[in-house]
Amino acid sequence: MRPMTILLSLIMTAFACAVAAQPTPDLFWFRFEETSGTSSTNQGTLAGSNFGGFTVTTAGLFTNGTTAATPNRIQPGAVGTGAVNLSGQSVWLDTGLPGTTLNTGSFTVECWINTGGVSQEGNTIFSICTSSTLNLSLFVGSASNLLSMEAFGGIVGSGTATTVNDGNWHHVAVVYNRSSQTLTTYHNGVQEKQATSQNLTFVSGSNVVFFNGRTTSAFGNWSARADEVRMHSSVIAPANFATTLAPVTPGSGSGGDDGGDDDKGCAANTTGGWAVLALLALALFAVLRRERRTA
To answer: Could you give the dihedral angle defined by the CA atoms of residues 56, 172, 32 and 167, in that order, rounded to the nearest 10 degrees?
Structure first.
């Protein structure tokens, strides 16, 4: 095979990886691969770094509102070897990141949930809240167990599609686009509801919280299984959600990563994929020049 043909094949492969690669979450990525303890490692790229004047935590702390609490760990998860099962527990995950850090930008939140066949009506998957007030919430808002959104005391969107209460794992997401002022929920990568004219301004004292609607007391707390919490400080397109991850067979990774690579062999983020593509393009250009000179 001629060198040019080989390089063209490599470039096409790299291009496919670059396009399909899922962006690595920068704010939070809790995989829940731990088998015990009150915390979960944050694998987001900004963990330990400054964001909006605050340091993004390197681990998320489970709490009952008063002290650190230990969630039930289960194996396997929706993705990888582990997940949490909060059924029957008043335990939630408070990241400690103030909601005010999100007042100037967009964001995307993703999570896998599994009700275990038990209704979660009124229970919260994700919220930005204070000790007494919800600023924003993604929750199960009806007896039919459909996704809903609440912003500053008002319901701004209720799903009309498939229930999440069937005992299976479901990928859910909420995307806030500050430029267009839209707030959108997705269920298994399909848009459920979009609210417009949402100029979200989170109040002082609010925190980013998962599986509860209060920072210090149980309020609509999630009482089922959850896995792979991901939060990005940008708008993520549905095609780049983590829905392509499930189900996967855990590999033989180490050091907290179960080896189930997110992109199944492609780069872990789009930047890396395009960098490979650029290098291969330069190599192809060099081969073409050499072949012209020898022709």
So the answer is: 160
pLDDT tens digits for 256-289? 333 333 333 233 333 334 343 444 444 444 544 5
Question: How far apart (Å, rounded) are the C-alpha atoms in residues 64 and 272?
Answer: 40
Q: At what angle do helices 270-294 and 3-20 cross, to 10 degrees?
A: 160
End-to-end CA distance of the chain: 17
Nearest to 66 by CA among 215, 224, 219, 222: 215
Identify the helix (H) or strand (E) that includes residue 14.
helix 3-20
Q: Which two tokens stand for residue 266?
A: 């492609």
Position 19 scores a pLDDT of 41
Report d(CA 159, CA 148) in Å as an integer: 6
Nearest to 143 by CA among 160, 120, 127: 120
Residues 6+ apart with CB under 8 A from 27: 44, 46, 51, 56, 97, 107, 208, 231, 232, 233
146/162: higher pLDDT: 146
Show the tokens assigned to 217.
């007391």
- Tokens representing residue 34 in the block: 């731990």
Tokens representing 154?
Answer: 């008002």
204: its two tokens: 């002082």
pLDDT in tens, 234-249: 999 999 998 665 544 3
Q: What's the confidence (pLDDT) of residue 160? A: 66
Contacts of 160 (CB under 8 A, 6+ apart): 146, 192, 193
The pLDDT tens digits of the residues spanning 130-160 come to 999 999 999 998 778 989 999 998 888 776 6
Q: How far apart are CA 98 and CA 209, in angstroms?
A: 10
How many C-alpha atoms does 257 have within 13 Å on its Cβ side? 9
Q: CA–CA separation, 23 vs 193, rounded Å?
A: 23
